[in-house]
Amino acid sequence: MGAEADNALALMPAPSFAAEPQETLLDVVLKQRGEKSLQPLCRLCLAGSSNASQGTSVGDWHQSTVRKIDASGESDLEPRAPLTGLLLTLPSGWIHFLEGHPPSMSEYLQQLTTAEAAGILSSIKVVSCMDDAPARSFGDWLACSVEVARGNYMDVDDDTLPKLLADTVIAFLQLGKAVGEDTAETASQKLAEWETRYSDFMPSNERVSQLLALDELPTLQEFIDTYESSEEVSSMSEVVWPAEPTLAY
Fold first, then answer.
1. Residue 41, class by beta-carbon neighbours within 10 Å (0-12 exposed, 13-18 middle, 19+ buried)?
2. What is the overall mean pLDDT for the chain?
3. Which residue(s) pair with 219 in the sheet?
């Protein structure tokens, strides 16, 4: 009987003690992101003037450019999300709040450079730039021509300049909450009624004029030279050949 029991135990499969795969921090982060892109979300706010003699309106040029950039990103290894934001065209100039992935934003800046060189747009200034925004404020790209005749001029010095720029960007974030999910037609109707809806924060003709006159704001070319131009950096500590001679004591 004892021999039969020993034979039966010998035939039983050995229990498996294989360790379960451990979840890494990267697994947790990817699970939390879900289907979101791994590319950071950038925000850019620019202001400028138009050259009416060129026969191309600011709104038409931006709409054509944004759609072209969106279409060009479809062939990327990781398709880019479309550019979103709001373009306001006012009598004193235009101001554009744009959101998108770095490749799309870089392409947009290059297109702006070409348009400025061609005289279609002019006096472009960079109001703000954020490299890693937490979420989009607009669900689509919108454009609206509006006249906002309200006085919100601010005396500018080293202390008040950051507040002026922050107020301008915050105004677009508030507009994103108000019209960011609307269709272009509905958004235009709401923005046309700014006096009753958004009189406290709507970017005005006067504000755009003041931004364009500020010498403290970088021009488009200055911004590109600083943040978009490639530069080769060689560190002497990284040079491994020829080998340094033995130090004699």
1. buried
2. 83
3. 125
